[in-house]
């Protein structure tokens, strides 16, 4: 059993004007996990809000970078170095356009698929082999620019299911901690 903590990072943009945006799905899931860990986020010198605690029986550091999405790599690398968390124990929770709204998918490594937060993290770490919990936000309607779509709040219809979907994504994070990637994929990719 590894003594290193899990570093679980939720991606989003800081400030109240972004709080309900699709791009802030990672922050929303981290808030659910913070409730489960029974703690509160505190400012960390790595330009992130951090909660240290236990999650699903494992030592975990929950983090929300206090910078814009496309600058997430600096804080994530600083946190990884500070907590000495190996890249295989890094989980990044983020919004994903290419997955239907409400679906959760998990993977390790791969490209950034146009996601600026992932691009920044992979560049800063010099490694793409971290775990990802992908929160489906669906594709924009018609010809809407995807960048504009993710910076809009979830629709009224989507908000009806948002809490449940954030809980499900938080469950997926815990499944990674307790059973590993393949077992978690078997549960969350089945439906």
UniProtKB/TrEMBL annotation:
An individual GO BP term: protein quality control for misfolded or incompletely synthesized proteins
Enzyme Commission numbers on file: 3.1.1.29
Site feature: Discriminates between blocked and unblocked aminoacyl-tRNA: 13
Signal peptide span: none
The keyword Hydrolase belongs to this UniProt entry's keyword annotation: yes
InterPro entries in alphabetical order: Pept_tRNA_hydro, Pept_tRNA_hydro_CS, Pept_tRNA_hydro_sf
Similarity section: Belongs to the PTH family.
UniProt-listed HAMAP family: Pept_tRNA_hydro_bact
Assembly and binders: Monomer.
Cross-referenced PANTHER family: PEPTIDYL-TRNA HYDROLASE
Protein known as: Peptidyl-tRNA hydrolase
Classification of source organism: Bacteria, Bacillati, Actinomycetota, Actinomycetes, Streptosporangiales
Gene that produces this protein: pth
